[in-house]
Amino acid sequence: MPESNLPTLIQQMLTSEFYPHPVTEPIELMQTHASYVLLTGDFVYKLKKPVNFGFLDYSTVANRQHFCEEELRLNQRGAGELYLEVLAIAKQGNHYHLGNDGEIIDYAVKMLQFPQSTLLSNMFEAGTITAADIEELGKVVAQFHDRALKSEYISSFGEIAKIRESIDDNYRHTEKYIGRAQTQAQFVETKAYTERYFSKHPELFIERITGGFIRECHGDLHLRNICRWQDKIFLFDCIEFNEDYRFVDTMYDVAFAVMDLEARGRKDLANRFFFFFTEQTGDREGLQVLPLYLSRQAYVRAKVTSFLIDDPGIPSADKDQAVKTARDYYRQAWAYTQSHQGKLIMLS
Questions:
Q1: Angle between helices 160-174 and 290-307 (to 10 degrees)
Q2: Short-list 222, 217, 256, 259, CA closest to 240
Q3: What is the DSSP letter of 21?
Q4: Of 60, 34, 108, nearest to 300 (Cα)?
Q5: Which is nearest to 108 in space by CA: 9, 28, 11, 27?
Q6: I need a labelling partner for 228 at 20 to 30 A (CA). Which of 78, 142, 183, 327 fits?
Q7: Pairing mode of beta strands 226-229, 232-235
Q8: How far is CA 299 from CA 32, 185, 249, 332, 337, in A?
Q9: 273 neighbors 134 (Cβ within 8 angstroms)
């Protein structure tokens, strides 16, 4: 994309002169709906876009500093070796630099850069991911959850009212994409499914709370947020900006990975991941709430992909791809509702 469409700070960060260390050129820029990520060779710098989506508010410098610090803190749990520090970005005249000298205008999370080929999503595309990788992932996620913080306050996020608030927020933010990336029927039927699920099975959510399954989880555990590097699986880029998306049922995390594998046409790997996770945890009853979270996670991936459509800093070709990707996720979220129709999965 033309660099003129990017903020001046990001334009300068795409040059080697910006950094106090050698870089590999060209510096690669990756964007999400909420972040700029600059890959410089040995290090990655992640900045938060000055946006406010309601569920996520990075609109002020103070907020961006706070959530950068939270990102560093929370990702110590699953990828501590990757997350190094939070750095201020200051402005002097027309130039920006890392550090505190001058007017501080932003903050960045500094990380070790790992090869993009080690992302599980890219391993999948390259055909290098194995059943053994998926089995190990199930064990790693189980261990992550075993160490996850629990409290009476965190457990309160497992109440239906809190879960509904989060899910309904997804629907509110995506009505404007009806006719653009999803159909009216998909929207209505997916929303109706979640409403039926809550009304028919309130006891399931009570059981999940009393069983201690509401914990401080990852919150965004799809394959692009997992890498296998130096013979270790890292769970990175967890949710730092909203407790509603982090204080969740362990099956909420599991559903992200299962949904992602099924979206890629590998239900066999999704089942293998789930099997090895439950072998470690013994939580086979979690299968009962999995359908709700599968639809929810496909829908939230559709939502955040849809946001790219309206981002003025995203190239038109990437926006076209975002529409196609969002359509696929909206369709998948709807398909889950058609498969289960609010019924419980019967365990054998």
A1: 30
A2: 217
A3: S
A4: 34
A5: 9
A6: 327
A7: antiparallel
A8: 16, 14, 17, 8, 11
A9: yes
Report CA 286 to chain centroid distance, whole Å.
21
Residue 3 binned pLDDT confidence (cut-offs 50, 70, 90)? low
Site of tokens 């995506």: 174
Q: How far apart are CA 334 and CA 181, in angstroms?
A: 13
Bridge partner residues of 31 (DSSP): 36
CA distance 52 to 134: 35
Q: What is the mean pLDDT of the chain?
A: 94
Contacts of 86 (CB under 8 A, 6+ apart): 65, 68, 69, 72, 107, 108, 109, 110
Residue of 264, 274, 257, 324 lying closest to 125 (CA atoms): 264
Rounded Cα distance, 53 and 191, in Å: 20
- The pTM for the full model equals 0.92
Phi, psi at residue 42, to the nearest 5°?
A: -90, -25
3 state DSSP class of 43: strand
DSSP state of 287: G
Burial group, residue 65, by CB count within 10 angstroms (0-12, 13-18, 19+): middle
Q: Kind and range of the H or E element at 35?
A: strand 35-39
- The 10 Å Cβ neighbour count of residue 321 is 14
Environment class of residue 229 by beta-carbon count within 10 Å: exposed (0-12), middle (13-18) or buried (19+)? middle
34-74 pLDDT, tens digit each? 999 999 999 999 999 999 999 999 999 999 999 999 999 99
Q: Is the pLDDT confidence value at 241 over 90?
A: yes
Distance CA 62, CA 100 (A): 15
Any idea which residue has 């309904």 for tokens? 168
* Two tokens, residue 75: 């990702």
